[in-house]
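Quick one, tokens below. Sequence please?
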């Protein structure tokens, strides 16, 4: 598997077309239409649709070597492995040899190996999306995740996988 070999050798990997253009563009339009004074909702349906999307979940599962994952949803969730979905037609990624990401591509990188900061790239270029091995035996972290979910506005639909990625159901 080419992607995993790239991950092992370089500390980063691109999974082409991990998200459909529909999901990427729908999220981007939502972000651009948010009023400046409206807080960003980490539990918005469009975000969870991308988090629950099979290719995105499977890419992180392959990289992290486990199926039991939680989606990053609140502060205090340490993980050196981060990811982002490209939201533009093409975006150069400043890694060893410049790579080009296209809309819907998932870029996963290890911050301990790969010195990159996607936050310095142009606005609306990336949707940060990160998973980490589930920690159901950490009651403080689980409580904080569920508190964050309960405090969010709206009624986001979660599939069975979504409930497990949140931590409300066990893997």
């Amino acid at each position: 598997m080419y992607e995993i070999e790239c991950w092992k050798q370089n500390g980063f990997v691109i999974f082409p077309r991990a998200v459909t253009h529909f999901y990427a563009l729908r999220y981007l339009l939502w972000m651009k239409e948010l009023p400046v004074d409206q807080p960003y909702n980490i539990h918005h349906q469009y975000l969870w649709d991308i988090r629950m999307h099979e290719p995105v979940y499977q890419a992180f599962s392959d990289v992290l070597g486990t199926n039991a994952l939680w989606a990053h949803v609140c502060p205090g969730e340490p993980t050196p492995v981060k990811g982002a979905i490209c939201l533009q037609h093409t975006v150069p990624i400043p890694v060893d040899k410049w790579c080009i990401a296209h809309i819907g591509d998932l870029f996963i990188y290890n911050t301990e190996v790969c010195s990159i900061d996607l936050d310095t790239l142009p606005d609306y270029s990336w949707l940060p999306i990160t998973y980490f091995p589930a920690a159901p035996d950490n009651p403080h972290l689980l409580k904080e995740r569920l508190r964050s979910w309960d405090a969010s506005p709206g009624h986001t639909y979660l599939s069975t996988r979504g409930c497990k990625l949140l931590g409300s159901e066990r893997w």
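Helices lie at 2-10, 21-33, 45-52, 54-64, 139-151, 160-166. Residues 21-33 form the longest helix (13 residues).
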